[in-house]
Amino acid sequence: MLTLILRHFGFPDCVVDFCSDYLIGRSAQYSWNFFLSRVCDTDAGVGQGSAINITCHVTFYENSSK
Predict the structure, then answer these.
(1) pTM exceeds cut of 0.90
(2) 66, pLDDT greater than 60
């Protein structure tokens, strides 16, 4: 969905590809108290810990309702 929004607003292919690569092929592992989950592959949501996180989040949510 984010890549469709970026394309709709005319972002260059290199930007769309960069964002797509950032969101695809990620994994997540959860920790709370003394429990550590197994590593899970995920292609959903916006990852944490990167400056691009807020950019992807705002771009998607500001334009997905239009």
Answers:
(1) no
(2) no
Question: Residue 6 class from Cβ within 10 Å (0-12 exposed, 13-18 middle, 19+ buried)?
Answer: buried
Q: What does the buried/exposed string (b/e) look like for 13-34 if buried means 16 or more CB atoms within 10 Å of the residue's CB? A: eeebeebeebbeeeeeeeeeee
In 3D space, the residue among 26, 1, 27, 3 whose CA is nearest the CA of residue 15 turns out to be: 3
Helices (H), 9-65: 13-23, 52-63
**Total domains, the chain:** 1
Domain that holds residue 39: 2-63
